[in-house]
Amino acid sequence: MRIALAGLATSHPYTDARTLSRHAELSVWEPDAERLRRFTDEHPGARVAASLEELLAAGPDGVVLTVPNPGAPKALAAVLETGAPVFMNKPAAASREQLDALDRLEIGDRVLSCSVLRFAPAFAAARVDPAEVLSVRATVRHDVGLWATGYNAWQDTPGQGGGTMVTMGVHGVELLVALLGPDVRLAGAAGAVRHYEGLCSEDSGVMALRWGSGVSGVVEIIGVSESEAYTVTVHTRGGSRDIVVEPGDDVLKGLGYEGTVEAFLAMVGGAPSPVPWEQTRAVLDILISAREAVPTH
Fold first, then answer.
1. I need a labelling partner for 60 at 20 to 30 A (CA). Which of 35, 183, 222, 238 fits?
2. Regarding the domain delimited by 117-250+275-293, which CATH topology (the fold level of the hierarchy) does it fall under?
């Protein structure tokens, strides 16, 4: 099996490769020399391509796509032309312009794009009856201080990577849409800088959601945090229940990286994406709507 990693723009493809290398031969393309060196130091046997075109021309069985968001629609279009299944690291779009560009592509069931938390064992094992739900809350705790140093500035820039509201908010919105479905709209959003003054976006935020069924939801984003954890609280008439996702002793398994790769490899074997694009697009629309609603400094 041959898997191509198209871009190393975030930390995720490095993590993906640790699982993928147990199952497949890897090839990689990344225009940034330092990022590429970090990858090949860990995977010296990986074949290095000089361009995305060269990477895809080798005919990989599957592609993991991770490029800065402004270039993502064009890169995805090139991958789709090959017919190979693709896992597109989150978020697939971070602005209305980017989402509109994705809408012009023919995205079927051979594209998977989601937060890896969807495949975390603690969440995947949870059983929730939407008919019993009164309201839901997702709390995302993930520190964003690295961006305040200038690292990966495009991720912190609202018009490019979407900032904290989009890049971290995706985890909370993803989990709630996975539980309650894509018939959801943004009811309101707010954000602020409480600690990291060097940011272009925010280090804390909140979104209010409403499903067509009448269920309301809240996503809290805590970007100033000593630990990483994700909690979904489901409120029903009988009480409240927490679903907690934490790294644990095995980060790859605990946070869903391993499960996501397994789902992608099933697609390489011929299975459709386990996450319908309708759900992914609903998540992206919520995030982008929130970004549009929150002023940045």
1. 35
2. Dihydrodipicolinate Reductase; domain 2 (3.30.360)
